[in-house]
């Protein structure tokens, strides 16, 4: 066992990966020993090494995830910290399970990664997977601690007003990955946050809402109107920031359709913006948002029609 521990402790990936393969045999007969041996591996060496260790906890015939203790989970999370990008299906699967069954530890892990990225101003260090990088969703919403986690993360975001853009950007990505979709429960929490918000809170909430789905501004028109009314109370800069965040969320995403024809997304945006403008009071802050979205959609529709005319002339 001393020899295999030495192999597993190596900093040479090829040596370590051969040692991990030997653990499969150990796990069949002595799972606690296998866990203990795997803790000798520095999975922070690379995503490949981490993936080959963490896959062993995903199958009952190897090492059932339920056999891992609090200390084991903490150990592997700590070892994952140095990895700049958490790429790897089994890394994501492991973190997904941790987010459900050890939600507080998972939240602390991701928040620490956000703080590391912000403190080092390292844009190559990705605290959490999101968008095209996310293949296995986190499961914080399935945790029994969901409500307390919402308050914990919100308070954490509020207590770092001195941090710059990278912190706000990374923290909002994390909030979105942890708690989306923006359903009634989450919107109720954010509305309560808005009701007692400061100007700094409003900037953070704007960043969070910038990650919402494109149809959000139309599906939640009453919420958007109240939010922008509140933002106006803190002055032009806060309001402009809030409008910009919601505008960005609405125009995000890929467009698809028939070449030479307006994209269905643009037609939908134009029509929904027109409906919103019929309902929103003339001097309400939300009016500027929907006017901007309508103009953007109309410009894109006109561009598509001009391209069709050019194509037909050729």
Question: Termini, distance in Å?
Answer: 76 Å
Order of helices and strands: HHHHHHHHHHHHHHHH
Supply the number of helical segments.
16
Radius of gyration: 24 Å
Low-pLDDT windows of residues: none
Helix content: 55-70%
Tell me the strand percentage band. under 5%
Structural class: mainly alpha
Walk me through the structure.
This protein is mainly α and 314 residues long. Helix content is 67%, strand content 0%. It contains 16 helices and no strands. Helix 4 (47-54) crosses helix 6.
Structural descriptors:
single chain, 16 helices, mainly alpha, elongated, 314 residues
Write the layout of secondary structure elements.
Blueprint: H1 2-8, H2 13-29, H3 31-38, H4 47-54, H5 70-80, H6 89-101, H7 103-120, H8 146-158, H9 165-179, H10 184-195, H11 199-209, H12 216-219, H13 221-232, H14 236-251, H15 264-279, H16 285-313
Helix pairs in contact: 2-3, 4-6, 6-7, 7-8, 7-9, 8-9, 9-11, 11-14, 13-14, 14-16, 15-16
Short description:
The protein is mostly helical and 314 residues long. Helices cover 67% and strands 0% of the residues. The model has no long low-confidence stretch (mean pLDDT 92).
């Amino acid at each position: 066992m001393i020899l295999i521990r030495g192999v597993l402790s190596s900093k040479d990936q090829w040596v370590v990966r051969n040692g991990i393969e030997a653990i499969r045999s150990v796990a069949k007969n002595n799972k606690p020993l296998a866990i203990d041996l795997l803790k000798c591996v520095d999975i922070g060496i690379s995503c490949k090494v981490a993936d080959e260790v963490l896959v062993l906890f995903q199958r009952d015939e190897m090492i059932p995830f339920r056999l891992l203790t609090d200390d084991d989970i903490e150990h592997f999370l700590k070892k994952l910290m140095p990895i700049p990008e958490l790429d790897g299906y089994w890394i994501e699967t492991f973190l997904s399970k941790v987010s459900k069954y050890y939600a507080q530890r998972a939240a602390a892990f991701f928040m620490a990664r956000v703080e590391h990225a912000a403190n080092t101003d390292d844009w190559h260090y990705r605290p959490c997977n999101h968008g095209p990088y996310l293949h296995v969703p986190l499961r914080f919403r399935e945790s029994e601690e969901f409500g307390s986690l919402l308050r914990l993360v919100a308070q954490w975001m509020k207590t770092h007003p001195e941090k710059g853009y990278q912190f706000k950007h990374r923290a909002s990505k994390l909030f979105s990955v942890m708690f989306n979709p923006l359903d009634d429960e989450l919107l109720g929490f954010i509305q309560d946050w808005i009701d007692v918000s400061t100007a700094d809170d409003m900037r953070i909430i704007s960043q969070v809402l910038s990650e919402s789905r494109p149809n959000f501004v139309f599906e939640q028109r009453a919420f958007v109107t109240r939010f922008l009314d509140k933002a106006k109370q803190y002055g032009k800069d806060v309001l402009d920031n809030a409008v910009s965040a919601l505008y960005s969320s609405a125009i995000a995403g890929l467009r698809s359709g028939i070449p030479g024809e307006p994209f269905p997304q643009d037609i939908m945006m134009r029509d929904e913006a027109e409906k919103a403008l019929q309902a929103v009071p003339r001097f309400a802050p939300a009016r500027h948002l929907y006017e901007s979205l309508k103009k953007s959609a109309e410009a894109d529709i006109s561009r598509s029609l001009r391209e069709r005319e050019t194509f037909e002339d050729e």
